[in-house]
Amino acid sequence: MAASLDDDFEFNNQDYYSLLNVRKEATSEELKASYRRLCMLYHPDKHRDPELKRQAEQLFNQVHQAYEVLSDDHSRAIYDIFGKEGLEVEGWEVVEKKRTPAEIREEYERLQREREERRLHQRTNPKGTISVGVDATDLFDRYDEDFEEMPGGGFPHIEINKMHISQSIEAPLTNSDTAMLSGSLSTHNGNGGGNINMTVRRVTSAKGWGEVEFGAGDILGPLTGLKVFRNLTPRCFLTAQCGLQFSPRGLRPSCSMMTARHLDQNTMGYLQWRWGPNSAMTTSLVRDTKSSHFTLALQLGVPHSYLMMTYQYKFQDEDQTKVKGSVKTGWFGTVVEYGAERKISRHSVLSATVSIGVPQGVTVKIKLARASQTYLFPIHLTDQLLPSAVFYATVGPLLVYLAIHRLIIIPYTQAQKEQELELQRKSSATDIAKKKQEAESAVLLMQESVRRIIEAEESKMGLIILNAWYGKFVSDTSQKQEKAKVIDVTVPLQCLVKDSKLILTEASKTGLPGFYDPCVGEEKSLKLLYQFRGVMHQVISADTEALRIPKQSHRIDSYLYCE
């Protein structure tokens, strides 16, 4: 599939150097000479037939566009680095033209980021979470000596005891203002509630922003809050927040402040202070590298104080597999967690975590993240530390994943890849047909010029191209079922002959006028049979090899394969 994508890129990025048949180091004089020659060949006014006139106009415009880009130093530098796609990025017209390639690349990346930001501003950013809590303690606690059998049969009783649903969207108001609307619904053991929040954020400068929040709910009552963010230095930032909750018990103010600093390229240090119903002071250290993620945190507060350490190892594989473990201990007890995460499709990530705690018991948490939606399934197995529960919590999700991966995920992804490949083949076939039609049109336009060139060359026993083929050739040792894929390029090459010489650059011959790619993605070569001074010559040249003829070494009696 990668090859197909590369082929599409080639179709959308025609080689201007190959079209003009000049070197990448060509001077302005060389560009101008090639441009004038092709303009004389393809000028629409030279043709009276309406169809030939239309085809000549199309080719004339392509040559003119190529010359416009390559004759301008600034556009040429952009084209050399990024191709035609780089020229289509908005904003180059305001960039200073005397830039180095490194500066041009940096400017291109900046313009790309700005374009992506504009795209993001043009649409909402929906995010959602669905959490379904499952109580499966009857699977293991029924075997405890103190367990009392409930009437109703011998099957374990499994129920959904809690659920939480939240959703949020963003709506840009101006270039600096964004409105966010969020809401949530929760239920636990038959009791539930919900709330809705409205937030307006304003970007005040490149260093900071502020937002105002208003909310209402059926449990705690209305709330209002203010939050600000500010970059203090290039390596340090500060976030401050205050809020006021109008609860049935009266006003409940709260306040928090957090500062963070880059300790090195991969390490961040955080210090947070909270005042209110859950007052606490928290400090943490986070180190994130290409292969691992480490967090160490300490919190002192009322009613919870704890020490936590987590470590995550990132495998450098295609599925972005990660394994993680954590230990958290405090006034509430101790919790040990371990699990794994893996990418199962282009937009989906699946993870499973086993939580073992005192006095919490054993819980397995299944999480599926697809695009901006998250689905959580915490399954509580037992309130006690039972080895059997730990074993099944560890092995069960692994076996289920392996079965689903083999029976569902692999067949689905293979079907998706085959479908994409088929679409790429159809797209490539369409592009090849289009290029073939353009090449045939160019050959028709060359006929009159080629006739005059041959007459001039014959009068001085100069260079005559007798036969020329381009594409994939089949050798005598190839398999019988393999077929050659070549096209006749005698006319296009004869049209390039000037003063009994034919000079081709090291660029792919596919972009030459009258050429097209007959075998996309396969190795190609050029085979010529020509006559010079009444002597037959023959040569085979690789696709991206520079070629200059005539040469004495190309004589039939001293045939050379130069690849």
From TrEMBL:
Name the PROSITE patterns on file: DNAJ_1 (PS00636), DNAJ_2 (PS50076)
Main subcellular location: mitochondrion
Coiled-coil residues are none
Cross-referenced SMART domains, in alphabetical order?
A: DnaJ
The UniProt transmembrane annotation reads none
Alphabetical list of Pfam families matching this protein: DnaJ, DnaJ-like_C11_C, DNAJC11_beta-barrel
Q: How does it sit in the membrane?
A: Peripheral membrane protein
Keywords on record: Acetylation, Chaperone, Coiled coil, Membrane, Mitochondrion, Mitochondrion outer membrane, Phosphoprotein
Q: Name one GO biological process term.
A: cristae formation
InterPro entries per UniProt: DnaJ-like_C11_C, DnaJ_domain, DnaJ_domain_CS, DNAJC11-like_beta-barrel, J_dom_sf, Mito_inner_membrane_organizer
Say yes or no: keyword Lipid biosynthesis present: no
Among the entry's GO cellular component annotations, what is one? mitochondrial outer membrane
**Where is it located?**
Mitochondrion outer membrane
Domain (J) spans 15-83
Explain the purpose of this protein: Required for mitochondrial inner membrane organization. Seems to function through its association with the MICOS complex and the mitochondrial outer membrane sorting assembly machinery (SAM) complex.
**Which family, according to the similarity comment?**
Belongs to the DNAJC11 family.
Protein name (database record)? DnaJ homolog subfamily C member 11
What is the scientific name of the source organism?
Channa argus (Northern snakehead)
